[in-house]
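__Protein archive entry__

___
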Amino acid sequence: MTAPAHPVVFRPVIARLRAEGHEVQVTARDYAQTLALLQRLGIPHVAIGRHGGASRARKLLALFRRTASMRSHGRGGFDLSVAHGSNDLALAARSLGIPHVNMFDYEFAVQQHQIGCRLARRVMTPDAIPAERLTRFGVTPGKLRQYPGLKEEYYLADFTPDSAVLARLGVEPERFVVVVRPPPDVSLYHRKANLLFPQVLAALGQRDDVHAVVIPRTQAQRAYLRSLPYDSLIVPAGAVDAQSLIALADLVVSAGGTMNREAVALGTPVYTTYGGRLGGVDEALIHAGRLRPLIDPRAIELAKRHNPPGVTVRRDPQLLCDLIVGAAA
């Protein structure tokens, strides 16, 4: 687990693997809310290493250090390793002769995929990503397994929102409730500053008919957001039940990927302010009208949702389990 999305992605997979009699051990990187979410979800884990920050040199150093630690941990004997884009696990698994499964749903994280895909025995992606975009990473037809729909539709299949989440955050439900996610400003594939995002914060934060819950990725982002002079912004102190928040919100505005797709899966209107190259999943969602690009905050449309639909498509996580375990054969 190397990012906040991973605990929720793997939660139902881990439960099913254990129910089938497999032994599962979880390792995690100290980055953003990853460890806090694992704790909130009750997933036992071993914390190994931390994020290297925005510097390429520090990222590389962190990769080597975490790979060494993962290799030491893996000497206990494993039959399979699986991650959602973790290069250190891929490197450690290859050095120990352990088959590795590499999952991801954004194909243009080039440096990440050059390692993870080449070292993997199996690569798993949504079927919205054209297979030909993956060949430059050494993903042959025999290595690739694609699943229908969004990964979010699998881990939200058993989801029921917690209606108390708004009150815990001090949100006034009679206002327009907006969930906002900042850009991943320490990611190598998102180097250019997202100039639109501060404009979105200003546009929402100054409206007295809005409560905008901003979910930061890092402590630095949290400190910056709390310094802004906007009364309508709410910045949680730690990890939150983001899925319940999204399900109960009137709108999501996000510069990330997973939160966009969670909104789509939960039937909540969503704008993307992502500043990088769009991947196949977002291309398909935009084409279908389920995800809207935002280029001007003045274009934001607000409307109260009185009967949220909840999960729109429920997919069985057992399919993901079967694809993962099949790589050990």
In short: The CA atoms of residues 201 and 283 lie 25 Å apart. Residues 56-74 form the longest helix (19 residues). The radius of gyration is 19 Å. The first strand starts at residue 27 and ends at 30.
